[in-house]
Amino acid sequence: MPRSGKRVCRIPGCPAxxxxxxxxxxxxxxxRHQHATTPTKTTRDWQERQRRARAxxxxxxxxxxxxxxxxxxxxxxxxxxxxxxxxxARGGDPRGPLTVVCRPCNSRQADRF
Length: 113
What we know:
This protein is an alpha+beta fold. It is built from four helices and six strands; from the N terminus they run E-E-H-H-H-E-E-E-E-H.
């Protein structure tokens, strides 16, 4: 006979049994926390994704697959991403100006600048 896949909520002390790792109450709480602490989850709509793609396309058309570098010299890079000049986490405007860097430089930069 197949297993039902039901389990107890992963939050210690919660007796709720469901098919997910979190019960409904804790899932809502987790999602609320994620949206409050990760600004891109609420600001990254279709228009923003298109704006970022356009910024990368324009950068590649003008400079080729070249990253200006963050904390290292400019270098060739195939995986370019757009990021905010002033990070949203540090008070930047979600629709503010974008810069284009490679994914490793973007990760290295985080919200330190």
